């Protein structure tokens, strides 16, 4: 009997990625940590410090999920993925959730078999050039050499933009951000193109950030967000509502500092959010205080933003369209009800 | 009785205890396990793809790719971003892989032969240099070679464009001979490309005629040497033919070929053709690395030829370099060829490391970008494997044929 079990287990491990597909929540609880796919290193979004601890905007989402599901924000295993390996890593079950500034597109959502749980950063593709070129607009870039990271929507947007404006370019297609930077700095390409948040993150680590300028054109819509595999709706719901909890917390003024006292709040939505009223947690297979832990882990959306990529960080990204809908942005969470 | 006993023995136990039966049974079991294993893998892939809502098939090959894998100056298949499909990406990838492999194999062979012979030199300094080259180069992983050559050498060449005082940009790369025709920079080498005009076929015909002439000439020279012992300088005459005839035809036909010369624009050189920087880096790495292995093959081949052959040649008054060319190397070839084949195969397969520095080979643009855009992982990987398998088997077949030709004919 035991031997049979062993055989069955062996066969399951060897032959089925599908086992990992259903019941991700149970899998995660059983192994005790969330496997989170992040970038190989993008300042402000996800990068390890000199002690190997990951920090950043995307990392804080993973931490919030771990706090919601497992009650401990540190129970995350970070798996660095390149633009090319990220989808295979998620599809094969190597990671449970991918928080790697990934653009939500039609074909990724449908054909590739993933489920985007929301948008945590509204971005757009831009261009960075050296100041001494005297380029003022992307429309002047006809004939330029352009550094691109492979395996991204950037490649397609770039080709579309140059086609639409009847310009030609020489692509230098590079595997990751660090190598692209090397090529750009040595002058092997005139232009570096990626999402504007990525450009800002890359610019601050160049040897002389002030010698480079990000051009005004935004050539695409890049709604970046976390994603999970198709087919496990419960796990998708947990990811989606963890993100929404962070946004709602900002909207309701719930912060890392004051969330402890919020259980005694008079506002019914806050009470539902922190689990003092209703039973929202049980509907997604978690306990009542899941959202409270998620916010307590790294603060609400605003706190996470300001700490990692906001105006007071080296990246200096203003909130812009990423402000709450009540403050002129388009960030909007469905109600907790 | 005896027959009955035999029949009785042919029960289940004889399947195991009879040596011949046992061999067959074991083979059947092995094959069944293998078939079962393959079936499980294929079935697993198909089932899981269905579960994930992926539909396998090759329809994606005719979809417009929508990305630009290469520059206008390095575009061997006329890839056009407006209309080319993933199928065209596939073709471009194959062509680029074949190009780097072909050039790499030829250069690595030359490097290998030169260094291999030098390693056996009587001059201590030359011998030491060759030995150092071999031992250092073949003991560094290839990926490091690629990084060193690209990030450490190619990217440190002069920049192509530099700011001019009045805010414009001028060419600052190496301008060969000051001709404004061939430029070298950390973006690669740009050179003029021929534009064929009406009547260019004459040159092609002249070229073919030159080759035919060379074949005829070498046969005639051999015959004459057999009869009279006089040596005709075939090499120089052939070079003269193959260069001279087409040039002659070019002028006779009224110069039907014009040249597209690279012109400096605001960002780049436009026009002509180019060998991009990543190709330079990859080629150098592959040649230097594989050349070291080939050099060792050549050395072992030469040492396998009995020293008596050299002594006999010297006794006949044949000079050392002719001895090497006409007596030692031909006999060494049959030892050199088999390991050389595997080096050629290695070089071809290793060229897939191009992805590290962005050379647009098959693995980079098709298995990399197309896979990422379409998500048809299984089909794309299978196609890529098929291509490498075909290239490798072709090289193998050719080298085996050549090996048979140079092998010792036993009587």
What coarse outline of chain A follows from CA principal-axis ratios?
globular
The CATH superfamily of the largest domain in chain A is Periplasmic binding protein-like II
Helix content of chain B: 55-70%
The count of domains of chain A is 2
Structural write-up:
Chain A has 337 residues and is α/β, with parallel strands linked by helices. Chain A has two domains: 16-122 and 223-327, D-Maltodextrin-Binding Protein, domain 2 (3-Layer(aba) Sandwich); 128-220, Periplasmic binding protein-like II (D-Maltodextrin-Binding Protein, domain 2, 3-Layer(aba) Sandwich), CATH 3.40.190.10. Chain A has 13 helices and 13 strands. Chain B has three domains: 2-51; 86-192 and 261-406, Orthogonal Bundle (MetI-like fold); 194-260, no CATH class. Chain B has a four-stranded antiparallel sheet. Chain B has a two-stranded antiparallel sheet with strand order 1-2. In chain B, strands 6-7 form a two-stranded antiparallel sheet. The longest helix of chain B has 34 residues, at 86-119. Chains A and B meet through helix 4, helix 6, strand 10 and helix 7 of A and helix 3 and helix 12 of B.
